[in-house]
Amino acid sequence: MAKRRHSLHPDAPLYHTDHRRPVTRRDFLRQSFISGSGVVAGGALLSLLGNPRLAQADLSGDLQALATGAGCPLTGLGSGGKIPFICFDLAGGASMVGSNVLVGGRGGYLDDPLSVAGYSKMGVPGDMVPGGVDTNPPLNGPNQDINTSEDDFTDITLGLPFHSDSGFLRGILSRTNLANTATKVNGAVIPARSDNDTANNPHNPMYGIAAIGADGEITRLIGSRSSESGGNSVAPALLIKPEWRPTKVDRPSDVTGLVETGDLLSVLSGPSGPTDVRAVMESAVRLSDQKISLADTQLTGIGDNERILNLIRCGYLKSADIADRFVGVNIDPAQDADIVGPNGIFSEAEFNSSGEFRKTASVMKMVIDGYAGAGTIQMGGYDYHTGDRAVGEIRDLRAGICIGACLEYAAKRGKPLMIYVFSDGSVASNGTLDNSENGRGKGVWTGDNSSTAASFFLVFNPNGRPRNLAGTETGVQIGSFRPDGSVETVNAPLAANDVNMLVQTVLLNYMALHGEQGDYSNRFGNGLGTDLDSLIAFQPIVAPTTT
């Protein structure tokens, strides 16, 4: 009698006989030896933030003048008028296409399909090869299988075609309202090779998103990891601005800590407490400015004295500005009824038991509510070729739940949102099937394979599903695959074989959603060539903004 194999827990580490031992933090992350963590915020800080929301206050006039004189750009403009942007960095080499998003040759997944062997390489057995469109999407539910009747394994519920048994799709649809949210989503897939098991792929586009104008009331960029990119993969070197380094946010206490004023509110209690806190913080700025002015004559031989002093002034001014606007304001995702609770995206039990859910909730609240311009959610353990299929399916499902949570929160807030999903490399199957419950009868992931790699993005528009340049609601494929399941790199978009150009393609599409693609070359050069329309997925969904 065959021994029954139990699937690994989503956070269990991956042991590979064909991999060297992990020695760096990134090695540990991609094999899930470490993962995102989170704690429920507590203590005095929650009592500070537990008051009803107060009207935000501006800095006093003399401090506004000081900020202007110091050239200090105080925030407070939400996302800078730009679409909130969240990227998912799936560390390790996730399978993005075939088993998840559908792809094909130059004519698309339906008119120019992959061969059966190509699908097998992507982990899709012959009896699950897609062949058309299912027009009867499933009912909403956390464990609902997709398309259980008359199944042709194609689902266009989100505009972008997915395999109907995609782990990503099952997760996304378990958190989104099918009658509202899902009907206002569309997406694009970009076939693009990237190196396996390395963080040196310059995948992360957040600095470019910030350069386009995305900003937040508290900070410009956030990421769930304390790194220069905010995630596992690095950012393109030419886009990095050290002063924009992402602030680490991976739990509710990180969010609330960004507007921490210590114990001032507990000391200055009573109805006038918030007003008194603002007065104390502003007085601290005035005293600090006097000391800075006295130091002016002592900064000899250090270079541009005035610039150094203004940078110091700006630090104090921004702290006071944030205190003025957020004292008494509850920004804790754990206390947001739209996120946690009976009518929330997560139940209290699952929120408290999953660091990945707390991490996602923290980043999505910061970005979608306008406190940050863009954010990275890093998820580990996507180097999931463990001799079975179940591990990959379980982890894809959880990533889908987190993606769906972001889409649903944007819908609850009535905000547009762009979500970009990428990974370092990819995996392939040799055709052996895993018929366990979680293996779902699909191909076992047997090794790394960068030729099957791709990235994709989803766009939510509260006013209706985004339309492609042809004016239809069909999802878009930018690039193509060969019939054997490999990325086409000949006469293909530059993104197909250059991760830097992949990032540039994402930036172009972000600008196009604002109708600002005409300014792309001025901002980022002519690296993508002159035929930019062929690389743009959708028509604008918001009006252009001046930044």
How many discrete domains?
2
Q: Tally of extended strands? A: 12
Strand order of the largest sheet: 6-5-7-1-8-11-4-12
Class from secondary-structure proportions: alpha/beta
Task: Give the averaged pLDDT, no decimals.
Answer: 83
Overall form = globular
Please write the string of helix (H) and strand (E) elements.
HHHEHHEEHEHEEHHHHHHEHEEEEEHH
The number of helical runs is 16
How much of the sequence lies in strands comes to: 5-15%
Low-confidence stretches: 36-56, 134-150, 263-269
Percentage of residues assigned to helices: 25-40%
Radius of gyration, Cα only, in angstroms?
A: 24 Å
Q: Cα distance, first to last residue?
A: 68 Å
Q: Describe the sheet with the most strands.
A: 8 strands, mixed
